[in-house]
């Protein structure tokens, strides 16, 4: 078993879910530590029936820790995680900073587990909007090679953390009462609105969130030839990202074949009966660790095209669950459990 597992960013939105998952799922470890910024350090966390003090994250806090699971802003991951590697720890990082770096594995356990097993040092977990799409693409790619993807996202406010949820709730309340509200987490009012920008301007008119979907998809699937055209949109939904995905494959995949491929792939659940108005939605997917797929149909505009709808809990499979699954994968490989 692991000797000491440190959870960095233990008090944030994703850190809370990681703690919950580590309570529910038996990651074998003798000791757990909980680390956070100076602001949150000193508080008490009750975990597996015991009280733990939240320790301050510093560069020399990792001695004796063999696994670090981190969920922090990019600059914190950049500045602190190399010290954990130098101290001998394997690091699973949820931030965006290390994902595309040369030599860093970018892993979804259902898709490319071997990359985690072969990794040295930092193993990155992908961006939430990429993760659910790539889980859904993988069985199609294995069966008929994905050539091109056109994806539009409908992303929940929880994607930016607790401040996003607060601004949706407070902004909605103020809007309904005809009062102004000073949004700071979003560039525009999110209540009763859609914002077609997630992240900063990156290249060729695309945002950083959109380019993550391009580059991370290629890296995880190990195929630089895959073309991705993304549009990422923030919508006034509390939790769970939704995506429309139109995919062109080397040979046609019928909706029936796609349904079978999705159904037999681990981590995917098909909910698809338009006649009974059954499809995945944020409200019926929240709290789950699965990627939900529905509205599977032929793309009428292309002979090799397939179109579907995909929903997943961005804080769970899109973040916390994927990181914990990587830890479980390492535990199984190293200790057989
Ligand atoms: C968002 N994808 O939803 C981001 C979080 N990593 O804002």
TrEMBL record:
Phosphate binds at residue 99. The active site is at 128 (acyl-thioester intermediate), 241 (proton acceptor). Substrate binds at residues 155, 234. Keywords: Amino-acid biosynthesis, Diaminopimelate biosynthesis, Lysine biosynthesis, Methionine biosynthesis, NADP, Oxidoreductase, Threonine biosynthesis. PANTHER family: ASPARTATE-SEMIALDEHYDE DEHYDROGENASE (PTHR46278:SF2), DEHYDROGENASE, PUTATIVE-RELATED (PTHR46278). Catalyzes the NADPH-dependent formation of L-aspartate-semialdehyde (L-ASA) by the reductive dephosphorylation of L-aspartyl-4-phosphate. This is Aspartate-semialdehyde dehydrogenase. It comes from Caulifigura coniformis. The lineage of its organism: Bacteria, Pseudomonadati, Planctomycetota, Planctomycetia, Planctomycetales.
């Amino acid at each position: 078993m692991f000797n000491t597992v440190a959870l960095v960013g233990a008090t944030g939105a994703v850190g809370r879910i990681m703690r919950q998952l580590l309570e529910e799922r038996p990651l074998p470890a003798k000791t757990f530590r909980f680390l956070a910024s100076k602001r949150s350090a000193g508080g008490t966390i009750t975990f597996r029936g015991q009280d733990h003090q939240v320790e301050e994250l510093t560069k020399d806090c990792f001695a004796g820790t063999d696994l670090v699971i981190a969920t922090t802003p990019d600059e914190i991951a950049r500045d602190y995680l190399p010290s954990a590697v130098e101290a001998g720890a394997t690091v699973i990082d949820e931030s965006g900073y290390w994902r595309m770096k040369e030599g860093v594995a970018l892993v979804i356990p259902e898709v490319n587990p071997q990359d985690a097993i072969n990794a040295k040092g930092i193993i990155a977990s992908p961006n939430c909007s990429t993760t659910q799409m790539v889980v859904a693409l993988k069985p199609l790619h294995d069966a008929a090679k994905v050539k091109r993807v056109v994806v539009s996202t409908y992303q929940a406010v929880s994607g930016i953390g607790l401040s996003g949820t607060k601004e949706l709730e407070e902004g909605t309340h103020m809007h309904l009462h005809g009062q102004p509200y000073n949004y700071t987490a979003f560039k525009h009012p999110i209540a009763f609105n859609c914002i077609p920008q997630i992240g900063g301007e990156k290249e060729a008119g695309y945002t950083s969130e959109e380019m993550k979907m391009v580059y991370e998809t290629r890296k995880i699937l190990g195929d630089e030839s895959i073309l991705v055209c993304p549009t990422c949109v923030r919508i006034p939904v509390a939790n769970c990202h939704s995506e429309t995905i139109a995919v062109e494959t080397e040979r046609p995949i019928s909706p029936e074949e796609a349904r079978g491929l999705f159904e037999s792939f681990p981590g995917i659940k098909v909910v698809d009966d338009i006649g009974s108005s059954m499809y995945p939605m944020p409200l019926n997917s929240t709290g789950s660790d699965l990627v939900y797929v529905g509205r599977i149909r032929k793309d009428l505009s292309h002979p090799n095209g397939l179109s579907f709808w995909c929903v997943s809990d961005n804080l769970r499979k899109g973040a916390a669950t994927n990181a914990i699954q990587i830890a479980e994968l390492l535990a199984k490989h190293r200790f057989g459990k």
